[in-house]
Amino acid sequence: MQNTFVTIAKFQYSAEAEIIKGRLESDGIKVFLKDNITIDTDPLVSNAIGGIKLKVLAKDEDKALAILKSIEAYSVNDDGEPIVCPNCGSNHIELYSTINDFKSLMSFLIGFITGTLPFSTRYQYKCEDCNTEFPMN
Q1: Lateral strand order in the sheet of 5-11
Q2: What does the pLDDT profile of the chain (137 residues) look like in tens digits?
Q3: Packing angle between helix 61-70 and helix 14-26, nearest 10 degrees?
Q4: Is 31 exposed, middle or buried (0-12, 13-18, 19+ CB in 10 A)?
Q5: What's the Cα-to-Cα distance from 97 to each of 7, 14, 77, 126, 136, rounded to whole Å?
Q6: What is the DSSP code (8-state) at residue 132?
Q7: Which of 41, 67, 112, 129 has the CA that lies 20 to 30 A from 85?
């Protein structure tokens, strides 16, 4: 069981996966990327096949997850300083897009039906600690 690979992360594009792969390999962890060649050939299938899977040996899973947790990136402002939640003061802030109003929904539906891109989306910040959503400045 110790010589089997387990998936510890998934990425939409291979550039992200390769950076993390290099970091883990520099710490002596054997890493295997699954579906990276398929997605490099046709990036539009990334969501359909579940992205690029970053796999490590089962015996290295805990160590690899600790490394991933230590390099987890959160949103920063233009000066490189972490963005702080206005509610709880945490800097565990993620940028996400959402379709939560009529205009965004209609743009999504029209784009889906006609096959055109990009869709009209709205971006906001969300605190991972208290789930407060707040607009970009």
Answers
A1: 5-11, 52-57, 31-34
A2: 568 999 999 988 888 899 899 999 999 999 999 999 998 898 888 888 988 999 999 999 999 998 888 776 666 777 777 888 889 988 888 777 666 667 767 777 787 788 776 555 557 788 888 988 887 66
A3: 110
A4: buried
A5: 26, 21, 17, 10, 11
A6: -
A7: 67
Query: 117-136 b/e with 16+ CB inside 10 Å = b?
Result: eeeeeeeebbbeeeeeeeee
Tracing tokens 């972490």 back to the chain, one arrives at 82
Q: Which positions ≥6 away from 65 have C-beta within 8 Å?
A: 8
* Amino acid letter for position 82: P
What's the helix, strand, coil split of the chain in %, to 5? 35, 25, 40
Structure tokens at 89: 């003061």
